[in-house]
UniProtKB/TrEMBL annotation:
<keyword id="KW-0597">Phosphoprotein</keyword>
<keyword id="KW-0902">Two-component regulatory system</keyword>
<feature type="modified residue" description="4-aspartylphosphate">
    <location>
        <position position="53"/>
    </location>
</feature>
<dbReference type="GO" id="GO:0000156">
    <property type="term" value="F:phosphorelay response regulator activity"/>
</dbReference>
<feature type="domain" description="Response regulatory">
    <location>
        <begin position="4"/>
        <end position="117"/>
    </location>
</feature>
<dbReference type="Pfam" id="PF00486">
    <property type="entry name" value="Trans_reg_C"/>
</dbReference>
<keyword id="KW-0805">Transcription regulation</keyword>
<dbReference type="GO" id="GO:0006355">
    <property type="term" value="P:regulation of DNA-templated transcription"/>
</dbReference>
<dbReference type="InterPro" id="IPR036388">
    <property type="entry name" value="WH-like_DNA-bd_sf"/>
</dbReference>
<dbReference type="GO" id="GO:0005829">
    <property type="term" value="C:cytosol"/>
</dbReference>
<dbReference type="InterPro" id="IPR011006">
    <property type="entry name" value="CheY-like_superfamily"/>
</dbReference>
<dbReference type="InterPro" id="IPR001867">
    <property type="entry name" value="OmpR/PhoB-type_DNA-bd"/>
</dbReference>
<dbReference type="InterPro" id="IPR039420">
    <property type="entry name" value="WalR-like"/>
</dbReference>
<dbReference type="GO" id="GO:0000976">
    <property type="term" value="F:transcription cis-regulatory region binding"/>
</dbReference>
<keyword id="KW-0804">Transcription</keyword>
<feature type="DNA-binding region" description="OmpR/PhoB-type">
    <location>
        <begin position="127"/>
        <end position="226"/>
    </location>
</feature>
<comment type="function">
    <text>May play the central regulatory role in sporulation. It may be an element of the effector pathway responsible for the activation of sporulation genes in response to nutritional stress. Spo0A may act in concert with spo0H (a sigma factor) to control the expression of some genes that are critical to the sporulation process.</text>
</comment>
Length: 227
């Protein structure tokens, strides 16, 4: 999936140039022309990175940045004509991850975007890891890797997605229908045996007893209970 970038700028020409340039480099682009629209698009589009002008109508870029930082850690690159040292210091204080002054080089912008996303991905990979049974079982969702006693469990993609769906929702009971639709995109038409087969394979590869970690809820489906 291509990284998603939200471009926030009140100048139509800049939005148009950035959209064409970034799409050429395999980014998915959404745009906003004022601060109010930007906050709405952040929730709707859920971008991987935000390019944010500061001098915006409705709500200033500084305030937009502060509001985003109240509940999200989405990387923000401020792209603005405000170029004094004080402006830059304030930008980072508001929560920006990087700061680029207009006029700017598209090549430099691209390099900064790639660097920010690389750091963001590395941070995410380090941040999310699930460990069970005193370290015997380790699950790295972002790396799509499951280790049993330090060795790759060699799960298929479907098996991995079922496992991660369960562990990210501990205690929640999933019906076979829900798992089939969520993981495989399948409407429920007799896929109970398919899900059961995948669960059986997961347990075998992870060396789990029948109701160890992955619990069978009879007549309903499955849930995950870590130890």
């Amino acid at each position: 999936m291509n990284p998603k970038i939200l471009v926030v700028d009140d100048e139509k020409k800049i939005r148009k140039v950035l959209k064409a340039f970034l799409e050429k480099h395999d980014f998915s682009i959404e745009m906003a022309s004022d601060g109010k629209e930007a906050l709405s698009k952040v929730n709707e589009f859920n971008p991987d990175l935000i390019i944010l002008d500061l001098m915006l109508p409705e709500i200033s870029g500084e305030e937009v940045c502060q509001k985003i930082r109240q509940d999200k850690q989405t990387p923000i690159l401020m792209l603005t004509a405000k170029g004094t040292e004080e402006d830059k210091v304030n930008g980072f204080a508001y929560g920006a991850d990087d700061y680029l002054v207009k006029p700017f080089s598209l090549r430099e912008l691209l390099a900064r975007i790639k660097a920010i996303l690389r750091r963001s991905n590395q941070k995410a990979e380090k941040a999310e890891i699930f460990v069970y049974q005193d370290g015997r079982l380790k699950i790295h969702p972002n790396r799509m890797k499951v280790l049993v006693n330090g060795r790759d469990a060699d799960l298929t993609r479907t098996e991995f997605n079922i496992l991660v769906t369960l562990i990210r929702n501990p205690g929640q009971v999933f019906t076979r229908e829900q798992l089939a639709k969520k993981v495989m995109g399948l409407e429920y038409k007799g896929y109970d045996r398919t899900i059961d087969a995948h669960i059986k394979n997961i347990r075998k590869k992870l060396n789990l007893e029948k109701n160890q970690l992955i619990i069978t809820v009879y007549g309903v489906g499955y849930k995950f209970e870590g130890d």
